[in-house]
């Protein structure tokens, strides 16, 4: 009697596609009903019907000035809803989440070679973003990554055309999500400042390329005026904070980080441990023959966002960006540890399936 052949295991790529399909669908369903989305769609419908408002159309008191700092994003979202309905909003949400995932994955691939470790690390890092929904924070993240890609290519090649990413992304940001335009300048600092530690490899720019980067940032500032509200669109949030208007209501995103918040604190503590581990082993070789090199750019990017997220919880989504830079330098050591752990823990298929479902739901 012939033995029945055991079923072949799914390849890591097929498993990743299946897992991400389930995850993106579940996340997309919850992400498109975020409370801010209803305001975004309502504002966008008004803009599509009546044009861009300069007085608040949603209150009974006439003539109260208003700045819709994300007017273009509101209009885009409302247009999708009007033309494609709920299915269109769902598809837009899934595409934006997939965009974040693919960017994170492209960075993880450069550090981690094992497909299963790569999948786990990509999922964890993507979840750190915290705004996997239809809010414009995802668009800001994608724009900042595009800008950083241009800066990285400029640093590698010296070709100034890559610096065109700075004014281009600034122009889009100031119309789609103006309250975060300052981030496009903050992320330049890690490329300009030396980190005072001998264990850290200095990767900051010097000389002519440094001056050119600073000049490109200065020349991008006039693009802040290219919007329906002019300079007021860029200063609106800062004016509101200075006036104390934001203190009249309790907005959790604008509060300092709470130490008892289990959403934020464990990932932050984990990244702190990763930093000190990388600092201790910088310059040493991993078991896979790779040399762990902690760079000044990664340390400043991670440390800067760490300071921001401690001051206000609203910066947490972009703390993931700093953690990505840190992971790019130290990911090979994580891969070594996870491979060792996997060799010691054997799970049957049913358990793996349950864990996968739990990860997707989480």
Q: Layout of helices and strands, plus pairs?
A:
Blueprint: H1 12-31, H2 35-50, H3 71-109, H4 115-127, H5 137-157, H6 165-176, H7 183-186, H8 207-220, H9 231-243, H10 265-281, H11 296-311, H12 316-344, H13 349-361
Helix pairs in contact: 1-3, 1-13, 2-3, 3-4, 3-5, 4-12, 5-6, 6-8, 10-12, 11-12
Description of the molecule:
The chain has 362 residues and is mostly helical. The protein is built from 13 helices and no strands. The model is unreliable at 1-7 (pLDDT under 50).
Structural category is mainly alpha
State the major sheet. Answer: none
Helix proportion range? 55-70%
Assembly of the depicted chains: single chain
H-E string: HHHHHHHHHHHHH
Task: Write down the overall geometry.
Answer: globular
**Beta-sheet strand percentage?**
under 5%
* Poorly predicted regions: 1-7
Radius of gyration: 23 Å
Q: How far apart, in Å, are the first and last alpha carbons?
A: 46 Å
Contiguous helical run count: 13
Mean pLDDT: 84
Beta strands, count:
0
Quickly list its features.
362 residues, mainly alpha, globular, disordered N terminus
Summarize the structure.
With 362 residues, the protein is an all-alpha fold. The chain is 63% helix and 0% strand. The protein has helices at residues 12-31, 35-50, 71-109, 115-127, 137-157, 165-176, 183-186, 207-220, 231-243, 265-281, 296-311, 316-344, 349-361.
């Amino acid at each position: 009697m012939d033995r029945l052949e055991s079923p072949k295991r799914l390849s890591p790529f097929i498993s990743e596609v299946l897992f991400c399909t389930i995850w993106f669908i579940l996340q997309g369903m919850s992400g498109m009903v975020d409370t801010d989305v209803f305001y975004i769609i309502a504002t966008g419908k008004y803009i599509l019907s009546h044009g861009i408002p300069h007085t608040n159309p949603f209150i009974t008191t006439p003539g109260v000035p208003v700045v819709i700092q994300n007017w273009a994003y509101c209009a885009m979202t409302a247009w999708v809803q009007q033309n494609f309905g709920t299915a269109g909003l769902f598809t837009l949400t899934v595409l934006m989440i997939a965009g974040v995932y693919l960017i994170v994955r492209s960075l993880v691939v450069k550090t981690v070679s094992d497909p299963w470790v790569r999948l786990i690390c990509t999922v964890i890092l993507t979840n750190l973003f915290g705004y996997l929904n239809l809010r414009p924070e995802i668009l800001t993240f994608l724009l900042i990554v595009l800008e950083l890609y241009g800066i990285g290519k400029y640093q590698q090649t010296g070709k100034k055309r890559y610096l065109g990413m700075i004014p281009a992304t600034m122009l889009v940001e100031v119309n789609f999500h103006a309250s975060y335009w300052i981030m496009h300048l903050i992320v330049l600092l890690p490329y300009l400042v030396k980190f005072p530690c001998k264990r850290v490899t200095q990767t900051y720019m010097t000389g002519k390329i440094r001056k050119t980067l600073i000049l490109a940032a200065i020349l991008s500032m006039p693009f802040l005026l290219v919007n329906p509200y002019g300079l007021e669109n860029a200063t609106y949030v800062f004016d509101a904070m200075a006036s104390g208007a934001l203190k009249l209501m309790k907005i959790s995103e604008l509060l300092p980080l709470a130490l008892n918040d289990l959403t934020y604190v464990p990932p932050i503590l984990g990244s702190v441990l990763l930093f000190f581990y990388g600092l201790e082993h910088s310059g040493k070789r991993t078991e896979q023959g790779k040399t762990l090199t902690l760079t000044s750019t990664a340390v400043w990017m991670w440390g800067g966002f760490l300071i921001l997220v401690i001051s206000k919880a609203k910066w947490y989504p972009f703390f993931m960006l700093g953690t990505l830079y840190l992971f790019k330098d130290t990911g090979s050591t994580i891969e070594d540890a996870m491979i060792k752990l996997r060799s010691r823990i054997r799970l049957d298929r049913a358990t793996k399936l349950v864990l996968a479902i739990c990860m997707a739901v989480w």
